[in-house]
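Revision sheet: C-alpha cells.
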Amino acid sequence: MHKEYINPDALSNPPGYTHVVAVTGGTTLYISGQIALDGEGRLVGEGDLRAQTEQGFRNIVTALAAAGATFADVVKINFYILNYQPEDRFIIREVRDRYIPAENPPANTLVGVAALAVEGLLLEVEAVAVIA
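Predicted:
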C-alpha cells in the first residue's frame, strides 16, 4: 500500500489537513459517523461540543482498532456540526489534533447541519481509513 499526501501550490496552505490523499493498494475501511454515545448508549457531554467531540474520537479509535487500524491509517475525516458557528472549528481542531498525525494529516471536511439523528447531539464524525 502507498499513500501520497498532496497539497498543490495553487491551493491555500491547509491548517491540520491535506487537500488530496491518493492511496494505492490496501483495504479501505469506512467508519460510520460516530456520535457522543458511550458503550452503554448514554449521551456524553450534553451541551458541550468539546466533550462530544472527544467521545466521537474515542468511538472512532474503538472502531478503527476493531478492524486492526489506528488514526495513522485515516485518510479522510468528515465532521457534521449542529448549528455550526466559526468558533466551533477551533474546539474541534484542538481535539482532532490530539488524534491525527501532525505529519501527513488526512483530508478533512466540516459541514454545519440543521439537525443530527439523535436529540442532544452536537457533532457527528466519520472517517475513511486504508490498511495494508
